[in-house]
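Notes for week 9. Today we move from apo structures to complexes. The key idea is that a small molecule is not decoration. When we ask for a structure prediction with zinc ion present, the ligand SMILES becomes part of the input, just like the chain. The input block below holds both the sequence and the ligand string. Read it once before you look at the output, and try to guess where the molecule might sit.
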Amino acid sequence: MEPNFTLTSNSVDGFRSTWDVEGAEKEVQSRGISTETIQTNERGTNCDENSSSTATQTDKITGLKALTADEESKLNTWLKRILPKVEEELNYGVTYVEADHTIKSLSVQKHQILEAKNSSEAEKVEKGVATWLSVATQNAPTLVTSISAAVHESWCDHSAQIDIWIPNRSDPLRITWALGKSIPVKVCIESLAVNPFNRDIFAGGTITGDLYIWSYQYNNPEIVSELFVGSSQCGGILGMDWIKTVSMSNDSALLTCHNDGFVVLWKVGHSTVVKDKIFRIQNHAKEQNHALTSICTVNSSDFILGTIEGQLLMCSTSNAKQLPDEEKPLFDPFLTPFGKQTFSISKLQKIQYKERDCVASCDISGVVHVFGLDSLMVENREPLVIIKIPLPLNQKITIWNELEFVLCAGANGQTTVLRTKDGGKEIVENNLRGNGTCIELTNNKNWLVTGAYDGKFQIFKVDDEN
Ligand SMILES: [Zn+2]
């Protein structure tokens, strides 16, 4: 059967070469797609093959003519030469548009570098996690950070800790964060999450599935007490989110998301923490658990999970079926798949968009899908908006409310502010080392932290220039 192709003309969207191909580029743009593009790539390599290759290449693609051994070897040589250059270009990510300075923008300025003294015992490749607690002075909250090794062979034998950074105003014009306390933990911390309904309480999940819950006193920040430590027996804690409970008491609940396909519900009372339920997140078609990456609660009973395969699952803790003859309180929750992205989901973030409560789901290629968090969400299944953020794979982002800006923790402490309206970008250069693995904005959006860069975290001051 003849393939049915449609010829369309699109503007160039995406990759601009870093090579000096100015003249050729103009020609390409004026003619649309033409054989000139090949000449551009091959300039200075093997120009003498230009005329013949354009004609034969079409044949090769449609498979009408087999390659001769000579052609094959030439193609092979050419591919070997071009491949590293293509990879290098791809690593720059999609080309940004220069920012239009007349439109509202964000001012992001380097403020302070934090380095915990004994934190660099982790291996060279490290991951940082951070969470902002309640405001301690003026508009500056206390910060908790932790560094873990990015790769664990079988067990963790690092001397892990969390660091509590307290802001102070010894100089009335400048706030600086100082290390208030370091608390040792048994193994590396994989995730940290403040309780958004009581920012004096925060939780840490380890790579072996232990849960820590700490309480901090904002009026006496040296005092950080361990409310709870216990094992989930469900594998490493990749992410967690707190649940807003309806009762008037101070009790709360926490959901932890585990790498072997379980979610655990913890009831956090004033003096006790109880492992209440374990949810098995099973792909019934494959009869195996989903490989989870991220979690985000919706209300007191519903939560969303992201998977390695790029799926989004809506789950409900109510109506969960208890599984028979299990020693653990194991439940099968009701799962509704409602979204699918191409790559592994790297982040789920609750945002406001067009005055609606929404969840933004970002995959590792920088594509963000935004869904409304209301009853229509699951039925409609289509995202309200899709944004393709030009960034190299695996960079960590955080989204400004209303989706106006996306902030991205890049290599060497560099931070990129991308304006979603027009694709304008501003880059805050930096000279730290390593790749950013965490980026967290404060609740009041005045401060940003990124890390961990060779054991260091970078704090930025953020101003929303209206
Ligand atoms: Zn470790």
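The first strand starts at residue 97 and ends at 98.
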